[in-house]
Design a protein that fits this description.
77% of the residues lie in helices and 0% in strands. It has 171 residues and is mainly alpha-helical. Helix 1 runs antiparallel to helix 2.
């Protein structure tokens, strides 16, 4: 159970951090080869671009989990505690619908690329390896959205109005 809890908290961080380290190492190698040995390599820039694509799609689910995505809360902040919690549940449901639609569309995109014979110019890897980042990222985001809906509904059901008023008075 501890492993699952650790993965829940750190999986996206581990993936994004590893990809960022690989991206940085490849670019550093390119700089050293280009300026130190006057012999540029053909693959590090493409590899770094693909790492960046993977980081982008996995970081979406990370921002959902941490709640650090962009939100406009001017109206929601005026609501009482229960109203804010209900608005949060609604926002997570909207995210859930959005990422569900994106995940469904991403499967079609990946499927069309998978059946092509296209490969990347420098690395010569099948291009679907790059494109699979889209459905992976969308399904991770969908899973995190489900998780946040469940956590938000639990928080809404758990809290009593008199508890939130007592908390506000203490603050």
């Amino acid at each position: 159970m501890k492993i699952l809890r650790w993965l829940d908290r750190n999986l996206e961080i581990l993936i994004c951090g590893s990809l960022l380290a690989l991206l940085s190492a490849a670019m550093m190698l390119q700089v050293v080869m280009r300026y130190g040995f006057n012999a540029a390599l053909s693959w590090p820039e493409e590899f770094s671009r693909y790492c960046y694509i993977w980081i982008t799609f996995f970081s979406i689910s990370l921002t959902i989990r941490s709640g650090s995505y962009f939100r406009v809360t001017a109206v929601v902040d005026l609501l009482p505690e229960k109203g804010r919690q209900a608005a949060e549940v609604f926002a997570h449901l909207v995210n859930l619908a959005f990422f569900g639609a994106c995940a469904a569309v991403s499967i079609g995109i990946f499927d069309s690329v998978y059946h092509s014979t296209q490969s990347s110019p420098a690395l010569r890897i099948p291009i679907y390896i790059v494109y699979i980042a889209l459905p992976c990222g969308m399904f991770f985001s969908l899973a995190r959205s489900v998780q946040m809906v469940i956590l938000s509904v639990r928080a809404l059901a758990k809290r009593k109005p008199d508890e939130s008023a007592a908390k506000e008075r203490r603050a």
